[in-house]
Design brief:
single chain, 7-stranded antiparallel sheet
């Protein structure tokens, strides 16, 4: 009997030894993971994988934030958003953060950010946007934070589009072209991934290799004679003599792109000041533009009628395209001035019609209709 008891005690002792060794190994392993940062790296990588409900595309993140050490957090801002998240650099003391949000254009509560973009169409070049490029229906803005918007129309659900916004809220040190190209990739590829996840059949673009923004803040691109225009102002070349008589012999234009949701052309005075802004908005951008309250022909600066507008029916979207020409103002504190002293309705209507007809031709739109001033 004593022999059996001794064996039982020995087995219990051995089990205790094994358990103690196992606990000690776990403690050493945990200490190693913490001391080497392996646990933090695993936790950060997991947060990025889960970001924006698992919809965040990660291919462009290292370029956008100039680091591979990243962490993410869910924002849950609401405002009709499908999801939104933030990605930051995880390396200590380093700048770099961006946000990505997704929403459906079909929702009545379109978030305030896209709408706010279009409230400044009469303020110099504040509303300027450059095409994202590579066949993507997207634009780049650079007024405050560098921002990319991509709008994917669902071919299998007319009137419905997915809007993705990527905002560089804390710019990292590094090569500017690479940073913006990375932000473009993150935004566009997240939109594409979300569209596929939710069954939205959309026409995406190719992989972005270079994204060029418009000038920062209120600065415009260098103007050139209107009769030499080859980009977004090309449709107005034939009106160069009339434009010169109305004080705007030059043009500030952007690359021609038949997929961008916003097109802008600025007619410029001989002192290089933007005098007229000519715009086109398509799909979800047209909807946001109308929601901003800026689309009407009588909604000019100070409630004046120094603008004209038009619409057209375009394939792939139930939202009519919106076209606008408006006299531009300069605001310095409480002083408001107009580089073009007198608005010419005849010139504005001729310029808008030429612009809208050319845009419609490029995109296969029909039923271009000038909207009477109210």
């Amino acid at each position: 009997m004593s022999t059996m008891q001794n064996k039982s005690r020995l087995r219990r002792r051995r089990a205790g030894w094994y358990l103690g060794i196992f606990v000690a190994v776990l403690a050493v392993t945990a200490q190693v993971l913490y001391s080497t940062g392996a646990y933090d790296s695993w936790r950060n990588a997991r947060s990025v994988d889960r970001a924006c409900g698992g919809l965040l595309a990660q291919g462009g993140l290292p370029d956008a934030l100039q680091s591979s050490q990243l962490r993410a957090e869910q924002l849950d801002s609401g405002h009709g958003l499908l999801t939104d998240c933030m990605v930051k650099r995880a390396d200590s003391g380093a700048d770099g953060a961006l946000t990505v949000s997704l929403q459906w254009s079909k929702d009545t509560a379109v978030s305030t950010e896209p709408r706010a973009w279009f409230t400044d169409v009469s303020s110099g070049v504040a509303a300027q946007a450059a095409p994202l490029g590579a066949g993507w229906p997207g634009i780049v803005r650079n007024r405050t934070d560098e921002t990319v918007m991509v709008t994917l129309d669902c071919q299998n659900a007319p009137g419905k589009a997915l809007i993705a916004l990527g905002v560089l809220i804390n710019k990292p040190d590094g090569a500017a072209p690479a940073v913006l190209t990375g932000l473009g990739r993150v935004t566009a590829e997240t939109a594409q991934k979300a569209a596929a996840t939710y069954g939205c059949h959309a026409n995406a673009g190719a992989r972005l290799k270079e994204v060029n923004p418009p000038p920062a803040g209120s600065q415009g691109r260098p103007p050139a004679p209107l009769d030499q225009s080859r980009g977004s102002c090309a449709a107005l070349r034939g009106l160069a003599p009339q434009a010169a008589r109305n004080g705007v012999p030059q043009a500030m234009e952007y690359p021609a792109d038949s997929r961008t949701p916003q097109v802008n052309c600025y007619l410029v005075t001989d002192t290089d000041k933007p005098g007229y802004g000519v715009y086109a908005f398509y799909g979800a951008a047209a909807k946001a533009f109308r929601a901003s309250g800026e689309s009407g022909s009588s909604a000019g600066p100070g409630g004046t009628n120094d603008r004209a507008s038009a619409t057209a029916t375009c394939p792939g979207s139930t939202e009519p395209a919106a076209f606008l020409i408006t006299r531009l103002r300069e605001v310095d504190m409480n002083d408001v001035t107009y580089p073009v002293p007198r608005y010419s309705p005849d010139f504005a209507n001729a310029a808008l019609k030429a612009f809208a007809d050319n845009e419609a031709k490029q995109r296969g739109c029909s039923e271009v209709r000038m909207v009477a001033a109210s």
